[in-house]
Amino acid sequence: MRDTLKNNRYNNSYYKDYLDYELSRLEKFQRAVDNVINLRGESDRGVQSGLRTIVGTYFNIINALYSSGAPLEEIKKLFSEVVNSMKKVWNSDSGYVEMVWMLSIGIMLNISKDKMAVLEEMVKEDGLEDYLIDFLLHYSNSNWDIQAKQFKFETPYKYLYKVFDAKDKLEAESNLKKYLIKEWYSGHNDTGWYDTHKSSENIYSGYWSFESGAIAKILKLDDEVLKQVPYYPYDMTHYED
User: Taking Cα atoms as reference points, which of 208, 135, 210 lies closest to residue 165?
Assistant: First the structure.
């Protein structure tokens, strides 16, 4: 198990139960959406709501798979399904973090360029201007220019300037560690998953700063200093190893 908050002898079955539930939920919503599409078409409001639920469920599953210690290939196999679901409903106002995660996971797991290009098209169509998204897309496609100077959501991402603008790799590593420890989690206190580990219900899927792993890979940082830092996806960063 990669997650530390559920990693004890009392929670051996937590992620199995969680994933069983979410996978069942995914199947149920997919059937319901297909039925409504057949009756009323894809533009129906109920269909759009159902598709957004499906996307959210996919992200719960990805998070939980990684948290549980599942092989990274299981996450890689889901990538296309998640992208295809996002295409139908994604926008940067409500799905910015989702795009950051998908680009970051794609970079760490060496997802093919054609699949990453679908995410690129979604960003283009949305008109999103964001420094972090540009940084990630530029790594995936060198023809993508880093034009944005700002972050769409400055909290907590603005702190990443200190990583990108560090004078050397040692400073970048130190600043990325500070981002993880001091900024990342608290900076997401407006998300639906914040503090879910405190709930009595099984709604917690793990906390992971996937962009930190992608940034470390892109900048070729020595991330041994980050291996035990909360929220850092060390195993995924070392998928190639």
Answer: 135
pLDDT of 5 above 90: no
pLDDT value of position 8: 60
pTM score: 0.94
Structure tokens at 77: 């196999």
Per-domain boundaries in the chain: 11-237
**Following CA atoms 32, 35, 39, 40 in sequence, which dihedral angle do they give, to the nearest 10 degrees?**
40
Host H or E run for residue 98: helix 92-108
Pick from 201, 2, 49: which is nearest to 57 by CA? 49
Helix/strand/coil percentages in the chain, nearest 5: 70, 0, 30
- CATH topology for 11-237 is PA2201 C-terminal domain-like (1.10.3920)
pLDDT tens sequence across 160-200: 999 999 999 999 999 999 999 999 999 999 999 999 999 99
